[in-house]
Amino acid sequence: MDYSEIVEFHGHSCPGLAIGYRMSLAAMAALGVVRSGDEELVAVVENDACGVDALQYVSGCTFGKGNLLFRDFGKNVYTLYSRRSGKGVRVVFHGRGLPNGLREDKPAFIRFLQECRDDAILSVTATDAPPPAPARIRNSVSCQICQESVMDSRLREIAGKTVCMPCAERQVQV
Ligand SMILES: [Zn+2]
Ligand SMILES: [Zn+2]
User: Fold this and answer.
1) What is the mean pLDDT of residues 96-107?
2) Is the pLDDT of residue 30 over 80?
3) 9 Cα to the center of ligand 1, angstroms
4) How far does residue 164's CA lie from ligand 1's centre (Å)?
5) What distance in angstroms lies between residue 67's CA and the mean position of ligand 2's atoms?
6) Ligand 1 centre from 120 Cα, in Å?
């Protein structure tokens, strides 16, 4: 999978995307896996920036399929698991091998990110933690205020009514 395909999916080329692309390729190679059609791969990302689009495209772990989980830690870390092998790999962008001043020259920075060795920018380590639980199909119930359908795990009880979260918030405000 070529970087230009990732750029087309994301909409532009940027250092964050180039970093995410390298992180994704490194994770896939370390696990010895191919793109996930279903849920055999699951990814946990610790930020929601540009690079995550590369991960979605490269790994097939997507928000919609439920095999992409976002933990809002503000760290440039992806953990990729294979349910088939039970193995997991944690990829951290450290950028220790970046030449000084390179970040200021965006095209040169992106070029470097495509050509450098993995260990100049990344660390890749196996993780013993088990993969997150598979995505579950939840039942839907109608909110008793707006009548819109709501996933049952997101319902709130308020004044004896079973309601959606936005309706619950509005009840509290009045
Ligand atoms: Zn971007
Ligand atoms: Zn509602």
Assistant:
1) 95
2) yes
3) 10
4) 34
5) 27
6) 21
Tell how far the Cα of 94 is from the centroid of ligand 1, in angstroms: 19
Q: What is the pLDDT of residue 34?
A: 86
Q: How far is the CA of 90 from the centre of ligand 1 (A)?
A: 22
The alpha carbon of 103 and the centre of ligand 2 are apart by a number of angstroms equal to 47
| Rounded mean pLDDT, 3-15 | 97
Is residue 150 located within the same domain as residue 123? no
Is residue 132 in some structural domain? Answer: no
Rounded distance from Cα 82 to ligand 1 centre (Å):
27
Range of the domain at 169: 140-173
Mean pLDDT of 77-90: 95
Instruction: Kindly identify the ligand whose nearest atom is closest to the C-alpha of 154.
Output: 2
Work out the average pLDDT over 40-69.
Answer: 95
* H or E, element range at 124: strand 122-127
Task: Please tell me whether residues 30 and 62 are part of one structural domain.
Answer: yes
Res. 8: pLDDT tops 90: yes
Residue percentage of the chain with pLDDT more than 90:
82
Compute CA distances 40 → 30, 43, 66, 67, whole Å: 15, 10, 11, 9
25 and 68 fall within a common domain: yes
CATH for 14: 3.30.1330.130
33-66 b/e (C-beta count within 10 Å ≥ 16 → b):
beebeeebbbbbbbbeebbbbbbbbbbbbeeebe
Which one of the ligands is nearest to 143 CA?
2
Cα–Cα distance, 124 to 104 (Å, whole number): 26
Residue 114 β-bridge partners: none
